[in-house]
Design goal:
The chain is an all-alpha fold and 292 residues long. It has one domain. Helices cover 80% and strands 0% of the residues. The C terminus is likely disordered.
Length: 292
């Protein structure tokens, strides 16, 4: 009974948060909808750039997939890794279903079919989630405090972690370090995409601060229960942080651009693995034999 009460409490919190976010965004979009369309129309290259950014985002999701695999303890066998990555890609679309957590269930079920324990799979998902939120807040603080220069040591640390963990991927502690490095690299790409959208929207705000605000908003949408892919909450939190509660058309445009490219990127990520799943069983077998 206690578990059922907690479940319903989480759902209520999610519904209230989503309702407040939708109302807040409706006020912003209702006032600036025409201005946002003008921003898009004034940039002939808008659609091509957003489409290209969606492909970049879809590719960056591979980093999170490999991070999840790196967090598996004991480390996954070489023959399992590409199958697990395919599982990660195919289950990713489930985060858009009501509740926003069904992709975790898909990983649990699929991983069990590959012979992994439920405890190991759950622990890997928890570590991936924790590392994502921590990396988002860490990079946000660095960007807001030090600007562009903070990207250099962050990138060096992330790359060093990936290389160190990749050199001895059978070593559990180093494998976890590798996963953390991959997550940090993903967040840096996310920050770069936000800055690109801000330039496209013609904002005059400081780009590092905007990227930091979006990363915090991303983390907020990630941890609030009951939301489909953080829909609504991320946009509302970003506008509130970046504009001090008073939405401006360029900042509202940034939220729309990011939502479009991330949703399209998620779709491309899923579609790529779906096509790979249907047409590439032989390639999967060959890749699974590689000790990488």
């Amino acid at each position: 009974m206690q578990g059922a009460t907690r479940k319903w409490l989480f759902r209520i919190i999610g519904v209230v948060a989503l309702t407040a976010a939708v109302f807040y965004l409706w006020r912003a979009f209702a006032g600036y909808g025409v201005a946002i369309l003008e921003i898009a129309d004034q940039n002939v290259e808008f659609y091509g750039l957003i489409g290209g950014a969606a492909f970049v985002y879809a590719g960056s999701l591979l980093l999170l997939g490999w991070a999840w695999i790196a967090f598996l303890l004991p480390p996954a066998l070489p023959a399992q890794r590409f199958k697990l990555l395919r599982l990660y890609g195919l289950s990713s679309a489930a985060k858009y279903l009501p509740g926003g957590v069904l992709h975790f269930g898909g990983r649990q079920w699929g991983g069990a079919q590959l012979g992994l324990s439920q405890r190991s799979l759950a622990a890997a998902s928890i570590m991936e989630a924790g590392a994502s939120v921590f990396a988002a807040f860490l990079l946000a603080v660095l960007l807001c405090a030090g600007g562009y220069l903070t990207m250099v040591p962050a990138a060096a640390f992330a790359i060093a972690g990936v290389m160190l963990g990749g050199a001895r991927h059978h070593d559990a502690p180093l494998s976890v370090i590798r996963g953390a490095g991959l997550v940090l690299l993903f967040m840096m790409i996310m920050a770069g995409l936000v800055m690109g959208c801000a330039v496209l929207a013609g904002t005059e705000s400081a780009l590092p601060a905007l990227a930091g605000a979006y990363l915090i908003a991303w983390a907020a949408g990630f941890v609030i229960p009951g939301l489909s892919a953080g829909l609504g909450v991320r946009e509302a939190v970003f506008i509130f942080l970046a504009a001090g509660g008073e939405p401006a058309p360029d900042l509202v445009a940034v939220t729309l651009f990011m939502r479009v490219l991330t949703t399209a990127g998620d779709g491309l990520f899923f579609a790529g693995f779906l096509a790979f799943d249907r047409k590439g069983p032989r390639l999967v077998k060959e890749l699974s034999s590689i000790d990488c």
